[in-house]
């Protein structure tokens, strides 16, 4: 049987393409039957198909219209992710609103978001009544989080007088001491991985009134070629900071993934130093810098395989007999690249004569990896 290969088109800004599309990822995906194909943003997407899946992080109405045209022509292709779902993350209020919708209970840990208000105009900014309930210092963040450099420009504001230096629309969020360490939780489908990063240091209880405002941008970011590993933890003295419980983060990730209807995102979490078991979600980003995550190549390749495999499964399931054939053939063509005979047995067993309805679980996520969990 001729080998069925899968095509995943990626439409990314240059910077993202450079960091994400590394040879190591391309060749691993290739060895598992997946070709990563660059989408030329200057030509209509619809003319560049077919793709089994489109991976994208581009903005604007024109791009959204292109995705709609593409979907009309190729209704079976998977778009990762839906532009409407991504848009919710472009506003720092709607982005975090979803956190309060989550119904998750853990015995020892609680979570939420910092106290915050949104200010749309200068008059309200200077009206003490409007933000009376907030305690200084606060972090001023642009309301819009659309990936532009401007949308990352923040300020730590120490007092009321400094507020007139800010340009609404902004979100004012209480600064919460958290021991200078932030947890970045990467989500790739049902895979969840938390890493530690250096964050803003704590501020003193007694505010230093000589300071009024401190501007900063992407304080917790790494350079494009850096990865989170033991060397980074050692250099940044992060080794001793205890991670939040993985099961707690996994539940939040699962809740966010379902509520947001997104597969590819990360969220930033800080541990409130006043309590020790209270966690605050401060930011959610679509398609973050995965290349800095340990083993990003295999995590992403597993996810790609899962995605195209599940889609193929949806498309081909008609009745038990047809199902058996179509699934074995997809697996033969794609997964056998890496799973070999054991997998063939699993599939054949699952598709035995007695088996009427159930489908084989996707074999791509059968191992639990260290420090990560499937949700
Ligand atoms: N409420 C807060 N209390 C304490 N520190 C905070 C708070 N909000 C943000 N920070 C610090 O400011 C940094 C930037 O904030 P935030 O993550 O909201 O910005 P961003 O530009 O969207 O970041 P990213 O690069 O992750 O997209 C955080 O990584 C953290 O160090
Ligand atoms: O630049 P990197 O690859 O690291 O990725 C960063 C990403 O930039 P890019 O998508 O333009 O590349 C940012 O996206 P926008 O908010 O600007 O859309 C945001 O998600 C950061 O949090 C990511 O860094 P991380 O926090 O994961 O380290
Ligand atoms: Mg952030
Ligand atoms: Mg962000």
Write up this protein:
The longest helix has 21 residues, at 296-316. Helix 2 (23-31) runs parallel beside helix 9, helix 9 (296-316) packs antiparallel against helix 10 and helix 10 (320-333) runs antiparallel to helix 11. The protein has 375 residues and is of the alpha/beta class. It has eleven helices and 15 strands. It has a six-stranded mixed β-sheet. A five-stranded antiparallel β-sheet has the order 6-9-7-8-12. It binds adenosine-5'-triphosphate, Myo inositol 3,4,5,6 tetrakisphosphate (4MY) and magnesium ion (MG) (2 copies).
* List of distinct ligands in this structure: adenosine-5'-triphosphate, Myo inositol 3,4,5,6 tetrakisphosphate, magnesium ion
Going across the major beta sheet, what is the strand order? 5-14-13-10-11-15
Uncertain spans:
315-370
Structural class: alpha/beta
Task: Estimate percent helicity.
Answer: 25-40%
Number of strands: 15
Number of helices: 11
C-alpha end-to-end distance: 35 Å
InterPro entries: ATP-grasp (IPR011761), Inositol_tetrakis-P_1-kinase (IPR008656), InsP(3)kin_ATP-grasp (IPR040464), ITPK1_N (IPR041429)
Pfam families: Ins134_P3_kin, Ins134_P3_kin_N
Domain ATP-grasp: 103-313
Binding site for 1D-myo-inositol 1,3,4,6-tetrakisphosphate: 57
Record keyword descriptors for this entry.
single chain, 375 residues, alpha/beta, six-stranded mixed β-sheet, 15 strands, 32% helix, globular, binds adenosine-5'-triphosphate, binds Myo inositol 3,4,5,6 tetrakisphosphate, binds magnesium ion, magnesium, inositol-3,4,6-trisphosphate 1-kinase activity
């Amino acid at each position: 049987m001729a080998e069925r290969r899968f095509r995943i088109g990626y439409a990314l800004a240059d910077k993202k393409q450079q960091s994400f599309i590394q040879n190591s990822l391309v060749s691993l995906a290739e060895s598992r039957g997946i070709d990563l194909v660059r989408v030329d943003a200057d030509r209509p997407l619809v003319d560049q198909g077919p793709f089994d899946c489109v991976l994208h992080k581009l903005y604007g109405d024109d791009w959204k219209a292109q995705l709609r045209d593409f979907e009309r022509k190729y209704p079976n292709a998977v778009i990762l992710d839906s532009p409407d779902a991504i848009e919710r993350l472009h506003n720092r209020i709607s982005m975090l609103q979803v956190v309060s919708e989550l119904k998750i209970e853990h015995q020892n840990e609680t979570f939420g978001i910092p106290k915050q208000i949104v200010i749309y105009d200068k008059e309200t900014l200077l009206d003490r009544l409007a933000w009376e309930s907030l305690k200084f210092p606060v972090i001023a963040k642009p309301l819009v989080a659309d990936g532009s450099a401007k949308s990352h420009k923040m300020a730590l504001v120490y007092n009321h007088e400094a507020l007139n230096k800010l340009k609404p629309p902004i979100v004012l969020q209480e600064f919460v001491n958290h021991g200078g360490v932030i947890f970045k939780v990467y989500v790739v489908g049902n895979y969840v991985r938390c890493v530690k990063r250096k964050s803003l240091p704590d501020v003193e209880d007694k505010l230093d009134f000589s300071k009024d405002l401190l501007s900063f941008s992407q304080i917790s970011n790494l350079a494009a070629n850096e990865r989170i590993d033991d060397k980074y933890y050692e250099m940044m003295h992060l080794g001793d900071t205890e991670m939040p419980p993985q099961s707690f983060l996994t539940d939040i990730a699962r809740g966010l993934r379902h509520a947001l209807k997104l597969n590819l995102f990360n969220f930033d979490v800080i541990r409130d130093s006043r309590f020790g078991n209270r966690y605050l979600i401060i930011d959610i980003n679509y398609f973050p810098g995965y290349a800095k995550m340990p083993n990003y190549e295999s995590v992403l390749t597993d996810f790609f395989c899962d995605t195209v495999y599940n889609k193929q499964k949806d498309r081909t399931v008609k009745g038990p007999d047809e199902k058996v054939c179509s699934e074995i053939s997809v697996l033969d063509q794609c997964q056998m690249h890496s799973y070999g005979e054991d997998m063939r047995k699993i599939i054949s067993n699952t598709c035995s004569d007695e088996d009427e309805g159930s489908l084989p679980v996707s074999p791509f996520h059968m191992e639990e990896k260290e420090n990560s969990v499937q949700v």
